[in-house]
Amino acid sequence: MTLISANDRFEILDLCSRYNRCIDNGEEDALMDCWVKSGLSFESPKGKFTNWDQLRKYFSKELHGGSLSGKRQVLFNVVVREGADVDHAFVDSEYIVIDTQTLMVIETGAFKNDKVIRTSMGWSFQSRTQKVDKSLQPKTQPQPAEVHPN
User: Fold this and answer.
1) pLDDT digits 0-9 by tens, 68-109
2) Distance CA 110, CA 122 (A)
3) Of 31, 47, 71, 97, whose CB is crowded by the most CB atoms within 10 A?
């Protein structure tokens, strides 16, 4: 017997997609609506944030001219796992980041491990740990030889 329904899984996958769309579109308020207001944890190579105001400040900076500006998040290999009860679940996924100007993949092989909880407003993120898969980092591209006209 499963603890979470197929509909719950769909809503959790929708939460993950909405979150990435908010990042892609720079929608700070909608992005923060994806998170619980208290008891959250967000850990990435850029830092660890343990309250809503810290996380909002981080996203505000990164969405508006920072490392998330002008990028597209592509999520894949998403697995929803059951939590301890019907109101908790885990989401494991991988993602890449594409630069919208050059259309080049600029970050690869990163993993997200999330804990989501059911709230009165639906499913929300409670915690996230992002780790870079060092084995899949882009190799240095050979630069074309400089051409000088005669």
Assistant:
1) 888 998 999 999 999 999 999 999 999 888 998 898 887 766
2) 27
3) 31
108 lies in which domain range? Answer: 6-134
For residue 45, the surrounding DSSP H or E stretch is: none
CA distance linking residue 39 with residue 51, whole number of Å: 7
Token digits of residue 133: 């898969």
In a domain, 143, yes or no: no
Asked if residue 109 belongs to a domain, the reply is: yes
According to DSSP, the β-strands at 122-132 and 41-44 are parallel
- pLDDT one-digit tens code per residue, 25-65: 999 999 999 999 999 999 998 899 999 999 999 999 999 98
Q: Tokens 């508006």 identify what position?
A: 64
CA–CA distance, 93 with 76 (Å, rounded to integer) = 6
